[in-house]
């Protein structure tokens, strides 16, 4: 995994490759009115995705939920 974009405190993007899948994941943060919205996105390509997508989709959903929960705890404790 390699961080390809880091624009503190607004955006971070990383990319990597594993098991025939190239993936990129990004987080963007937008502060307005004392609140911060976090937007996350994922892009994937690769021939093995055809076979593994159902598993990957389920895993990404649970991982994103955990990351968001951890981020909320950290932000609220600051």
Structural summary, described in words:
There is one protein chain. By secondary structure, this protein is an alpha+beta fold. The protein has one helix at 49-77; strands spanning 2-7, 11-18, 21-32, 35-45. It has a four-stranded antiparallel β-sheet with strand order 1-2-3-4, covered by helices on one side. The radius of gyration is 14 Å and the shape is elongated. 0% of the residues are buried. The model has no long low-confidence stretch (mean pLDDT 86).
Layout of SSEs?
Elements: E1 2-7, E2 11-18, E3 21-32, E4 35-45, H1 49-77
Radius of gyration: 14 Å
Give the overall shape, derived from the CA principal axes: elongated
Structural class: alpha+beta
Describe the sheet with the most strands: 4 strands, antiparallel
Q: Helix and strand string, N-terminal first?
A: EEEEH
Q: How many helices does DSSP assign?
A: 1
Major sheet: arrangement of strands: 1-2-3-4
Mean pLDDT score: 86
Instruction: Classify the helix fraction into a percent range.
Output: 25-40%
Q: What is the total tally of β strands?
A: 4
Strand residue content: over 45%
Point out poorly predicted stretches.
none
Q: Could you give the distance between the termini?
A: 28 Å
Keywords:
47% strand, 1 helix, elongated, alpha+beta, 78 residues
Short summary:
With 78 residues, the chain is of the alpha+beta class. It has one helix at 49-77, and strands at residues 2-7, 11-18, 21-32, 35-45.
């Amino acid at each position: 995994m390699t961080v390809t974009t880091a624009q503190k405190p607004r955006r971070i993007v990383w990319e990597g490759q594993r098991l025939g899948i190239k993936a990129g994941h990004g987080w963007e943060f937008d502060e307005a009115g004392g609140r911060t919205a976090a937007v996350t996105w994922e892009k994937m390509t690769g021939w093995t995705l055809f076979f593994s997508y159902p598993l990957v989709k389920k895993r990404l959903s649970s991982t994103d939920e955990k990351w968001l929960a951890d981020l909320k705890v950290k932000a609220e404790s600051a």
